[in-house]
């Protein structure tokens, strides 16, 4: 008789075994590696992962040929300085985000569906790094100058300061192998909030503004086209982070006390000052149509948007001084969430509202 056909005979004096229910973790920041996708605790993260898969593009689709003409013939010296500094920051910015994702976020966000999204985000960060690598290879033909750009975080003060701000918050969770106490979880939350609001949500969005300013003047269309796609990716990364934050808030509202709020406000103040010093460097040679005063106001406007997304009161209450940010409706951006985007290899459905995100 085959093994599968042997009937089970219970011992006469043995009680029937009582099924042990599957233990489910109570909170998303509980230590460990939950591997169970069914029943799914956080389907929103799985849907974000599925949406991200639809949001697929490649660097090979970007045409830099017009940009090279602009760099050679159209950009003013001050605009060239702006671009050189900007691409130097791009060379390391997404690599920093990738390292934090791998070293900190993946370790402590304990939901398999959320880790699926983080895996996809890591791919997108690598794609951004490839984009900026290709950008520098096209924009800076001189090898020595190119090497200096890649090492900007070590030799350009305004970029080094931004890097140190990022590394400070990465180091803040060093040694936290697991999040056992409320203090541990607050420390992790501040890291997550920093990367969502200050780095991806402020530093990168300031960089986008410089790109779209030049785009509004008809310059560097290849850079702007690639930035459109990076912008969408970064918006999705932020939305994911804010969803994790909201999940933690619903599970452990006691973590979101006045002390945490004060730390967030102080963090954003520091990020604005850091980014403003970078702006002074970029615009220091006098770029017509863009001032450091307007840039500071724009940074404050963006910071207020981030505070609102965190459920906190706005701190600056200023308007967006950059009207061109609301006019970038060039195919890839305007109806991003309202139609299939032909420019993507795989279309995306969803929506970007400039008045909310910027």
Order of helices and strands: HHHHHHHHHHHH
As a whole number of angstroms, the C-alpha radius of gyration is 24 Å
Q: Helix- and strand-based class?
A: mainly alpha
- Please count the helical segments: 12
Please give the alpha-carbon distance between the first and last residues.
71 Å
Describe the overall structure.
The protein has 358 residues and is mainly α. The protein has one domain (62-318): Ribonucleotide Reductase, subunit A, CATH 1.10.620.20. 62% of the residues lie in helices and 0% in strands. It is built from 12 helices and no strands. It has helices spanning 43-54, 65-73, 77-108, 112-139, 143-150, 152-155, 157-171, 182-216, 221-251, 258-282, 292-309, 354-357. α4 runs antiparallel to α9 and α7 (157-171) runs antiparallel to α10. Mean pLDDT is 86; it is low at 1-22 and 329-358.
Walk me through the topology.
Blueprint: H1 43-54, H2 65-73, H3 77-108, H4 112-139, H5 143-150, H6 152-155, H7 157-171, H8 182-216, H9 221-251, H10 258-282, H11 292-309, H12 354-357
Helix pairs in contact: 1-4, 1-9, 3-4, 3-7, 3-8, 4-9, 7-8, 7-10, 8-9, 8-10, 8-11, 10-11
Give descriptors for this structure.
358 residues, mainly alpha, 62% helix, 0% strand, globular, disordered N terminus, disordered C terminus
Describe the structure in brief.
With 358 residues, the protein is an all-alpha fold. It contains 12 helices and no strands. It has helices at residues 43-54, 65-73, 77-108, 112-139, 143-150, 152-155, 157-171, 182-216, 221-251, 258-282, 292-309, 354-357.
């Amino acid at each position: 008789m085959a093994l599968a056909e042997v009937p089970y005979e219970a011992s006469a004096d043995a009680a029937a075994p009582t099924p042990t229910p599957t233990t489910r973790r109570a909170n998303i920041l509980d230590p460990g590696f939950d591997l169970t996708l069914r029943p799914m605790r956080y389907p929103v993260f799985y849907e974000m992962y599925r949406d991200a898969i639809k949001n697929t593009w490649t660097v090979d689709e970007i045409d830099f040929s017009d940009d090279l003409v602009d760099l050679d013939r159209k950009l003013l010296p001050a605009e060239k300085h702006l671009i050189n500094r900007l691409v130097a920051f791009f060379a390391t910015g997404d690599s920093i985000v990738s390292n934090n994702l791998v070293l900190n976020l993946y370790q402590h966000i304990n939901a398999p569906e959320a880790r699926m999204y983080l895996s996809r985000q890591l791919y997108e960060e690598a794609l951004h790094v490839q984009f900026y690598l290709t950008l520098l290879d096209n924009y800076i033909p001189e090898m020595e100058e190119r090497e200096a750009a890649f090492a900007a975080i070590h030799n350009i003060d305004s970029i080094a300061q931004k890097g140190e701000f990022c590394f400070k918050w990465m180091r803040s969770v060093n040694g936290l192998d697991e999040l056992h106490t409320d203090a541990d979880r607050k420390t992790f939350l501040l890291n997550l909030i920093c990367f969502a609001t200050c780095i991806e949500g402020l530093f990168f969005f300031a960089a986008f503004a410089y790109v779209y300013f030049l785009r509004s003047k008809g310059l560097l269309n290849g850079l702007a086209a690639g930035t459109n796609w990076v912008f969408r990716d970064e918006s999705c990364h932020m939305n994911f982070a804010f969803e994790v934050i909201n999940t933690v808030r619903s599970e452990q509202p006691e973590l979101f006390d006045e002390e945490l709020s004060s730390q967030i406000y102080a963090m954003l103040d520091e990020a604005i000052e850091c980014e403003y010093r970078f702006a002074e460097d970029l615009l220091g040679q006098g770029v017509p149509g863009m001032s450091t005063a307007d840039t500071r106001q724009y940074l404050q406007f963006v910071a207020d948007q981030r505070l609102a997304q965190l459920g906190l009161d706005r701190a600056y209450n200023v308007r967006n001084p950059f009207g061109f940010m609301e006019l970038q409706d060039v195919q890839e951006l305007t109806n991003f969430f309202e139609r299939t985007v032909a420019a993507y290899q795989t279309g995306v459905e969803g929506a970007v509202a400039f008045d909310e995100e910027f």
